[in-house]
User: What shape does this take?
Amino acid sequence: MRRLALALALLTLAGPACDWEHAALMNSIPIKGKPSVNPTVHVYLGLDGLSHRAVTKARARGAFAGWDVARFIPMFPATSDASWTRILHTGRFAGYEYGHYDPRHDKLYNTSVEGVLVHAIPPLDSLAHLLPETVRAPVYYEAFDHHATDYISSVWSYERPVFGWYRALDHLFVALAGRSEKQHTFSAYMLEGDVIGHIRSEEDFVDVLVTLSERIQDFKRRHPERSFVFTLFGDHGMDSVRKPPQYVVDFRDQMRAVGITPVDTLERADKVAGPAAVAVLHTRVTYVALHTRPARVAEVARLASTAPAADLVIARGSSPGSGYPEDLEWVDAWREGALAARFGYQRSTDTYWLPADVDWAALDLPVAFTPGAESGVFTDETLFAASAERTYPDFFFRARTALEPISVEFPAEAVVSLRDPYMSVGFLVPIVGGLDLASAASHGAMSGQGSVSALLTEERSLPATVRSDTLLELFPALSEHLLQRGLTLLPGADGASLDYAGLP
Ligand SMILES: [Zn+2]
Assistant: This one.
């Protein structure tokens, strides 16, 4: 509770010290520019929790007519902070979310109220030095010209999300009008859609999307002096699977029941007889990250996969034996106590080695082998195309990179993807209590609509399915904008690029 007190103190302290509304206004004061200097303005909106299915329903109601739309597949686990960081190639986040395990200090961070409350802290540089390093605003916030309207916008968002959405839209279009006098690219972030999805319903989210489409058209009508070209993209989808209270679980309870001792440190794990792991519960999402000693990974992953809430456990693996090159990096997928799948990745050639004796069809992964062959070698494009519209979209790339330090400094050794309708209870949420909060839908798991976000644009044509890691390749103006904002763009995952035109 000490950190909570600190955060609240900062919130109240910050009020009189600066005036964020005023600052936002000054930022968006319409200093008149010449439309001939920037006749076209590219607008990139990052919408948290933008699910492809909600977009499809909004389009059925006439929204975003004439735009190109793609299924947009985020990283696994499909969760906000790590995913935005991955999409935008910005500086790495410590863990998948604020709550994370740091192996350098063998310690869990932000595992209670402060992990959630930090979202209510404004990303102002002038205040950053007052915060502990572990609760500082993520770097990806800096990718956006506009994303919060005042110090308590996050609190508004959680308590009255639809009201928060409309309020955020008002501010967004004021900011756009101001910035477009001088800028030819504008980027903004909206959190509220994610909250509406978690707490309210898909229909409510469809409603606000329809309104967003109308507001965009209205804005264009009122600003005929320039042409505005919009692109919308999300960090994950929303599964729209209601979570009954008995399925909102503390995974540590299930670990105990299947023989894994949940611990807070690996030092403690070493003293326990039998398998032990640090579980990071994060927020109310459908995955759990497990940190354990390398020697214990397979055992922990296997046992964790027998927990009722587990669908798949993705973990670092090892070679099944001879017949494979030595430079392969192996990934295991455990289900119900058995090794459901394993594959090796060859980084130098960006190819995947798949054993033929795995029941790939049981994972809804249609891959074909030469008859009699013990294994097959597949290109990233082949496997992307095979899995793009299946139960586990982009399975191979996402399973592999979940365990690599790409947008995350300290990836887990194993990630549990939960089964419907289970959801992790998460660390305590201080604003409103009860198991009903944020139980209308969630995301994070490898399967389902939570792993299918959307990419919509007026700028160009799109492939049917886009790997979210490649957004900046498809939209170089956004990439250039981030560089102009002073961001250092990280190279991202090895082998993330896809030859979309050459997909099988
Ligand atoms: Zn999100």
